[in-house]
Amino acid sequence: MYRLLKQEGRAKRGEFETVHGTIQTPVFMNVGTVAAIKGAVSTQDLEQIKTQVELSNTYHLHVRPGDKIIKQLGGLHKFMSWNKPILTDSGGFQVFSLATLRKIKEEGVYFNSHIDGRKIFMGPEESMQIQSNLASTIAMAFDECAPAKAERAYVENSVARTTRWLERCKAEMARLNSQEDTINKNQLLFGINQGAIYTDIRIEHAKRISELNLDGYAVGGLAVGESHEEMYHVLDETVPYLPVDKPTYLMGVGTPANILEGVERGIDFFDCVYPSRNGRHGHLYTNHGKINLFNAKYELDDRPIEEGCDCPACRRYTRAYIRHLLKAKEMLGMRLCVLHNLYFYNTMMEEIRAALDAGNFAAYKKTKLDNMSHPED
User: Where do the record's region annotations for RNA binding lie (predicted)?
Assistant: First the structure.
């Protein structure tokens, strides 16, 4: 159940009620691909850094340890000891990005596991069954993520098939949610809008999937090779054709600037590996832009990563110490950097929600972007 609390232009401030708790939107989902955030971050840590939603990956968990094993252990929430919402992506993107050998057919996709090469088949029903076994809060529909610059004819065929797959996902989800042994009988389904950078295809697809009255809608197939300007243009054109009274999710995006631009265009949900991936390499987000702790100038810097930040790293440790840990390849260095970056993102979302509540998001966005484009000395 999604409640639209406020709008400022197209920007939305909402609440999304789920069986695992209410999500305040706009929200950034913290990415734990294999049921863990890379960088030795525990679910206990996630609670402390203001995480609302954790995102895990259907394909990776199907390959290892196996979704049936997770079901036997009581579902993903129990398995990873996390009681707040979890979104699982459908595995579609991984099938297309990781699989070297794959064959797309109407029934689904035949491909080889990137781990051991074994043959796997995944179609809409299989993706829904795996996600039902995982018992996530929100399941994503199985789709094809066509390359941003793919030929128009290819994209048209791909989107038409994605629509047919979505109808099969919806039917299979309804069947699974009515089964006695299903762990989460209230699992929600989000459909995915595709169409590469062809806005007319995107708009037609948005209209078509909106008719299916799903629990939420994602814009997929962006941040895969097109420019930021092209991405924003697609959002400008497409989002108005998705239901305003349902959550909208921009998949795999992005930088703090991308998120601010996305919110302005009506996006509720975001996810991206940037904060954790960059953190593991010593690249840290601050209100004055990114800093790289490997730079020699931080060797004697006894300040926290960011003055006034209340994350576990900044409350206690100096840049010099964390830099030393990274240089010495101590896991604690990575962990502290990932915690800081996720806390930065989660706090920025809190600020965005507060600005929307107060009706001054436009001013907040301008100030935030100005500050982040003026790095400190």
Answer: 252-258
